[in-house]
Amino acid sequence: MQKNNYILIFFSLLALTSCVQKSSKKTIILKLNVHGIENIQSVGIRGNENPLNWEYDMELKPIIKDSLYTATFSIVTGYKFTEAKFTVNGQFELNDKENRRILFDENDTTVYEAKFNILDK
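^ thats the sequence. predicted structure below, dont judge the formating
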């Protein structure tokens, strides 16, 4: 009977440890094309993984003013993607559409290129 208890405990512990997703640090390099939008005061991104959030923009910096903006940040996650939306002048893109899914590369750095308000599949 005691042997059965040990076997039960062993398999219970094995099941608990195998369900935990391994977290890793992911670096994301964003490149956003905003060509054609007028009167740009700010460009940002919001999302659901720290340091992103849905309340405040993380600012993107201009590479080419009024055309191409970029940001680089890191997150620690056990997921294979994160969700986000870009903003221009504090206004969300893709109104009434799904969030962007930024799929992480197998390596530690993901480069994500997008055009504002256009969701490529």
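Residues 22-115 form a domain with the Immunoglobulin-like fold (CATH 2.60.40.10).
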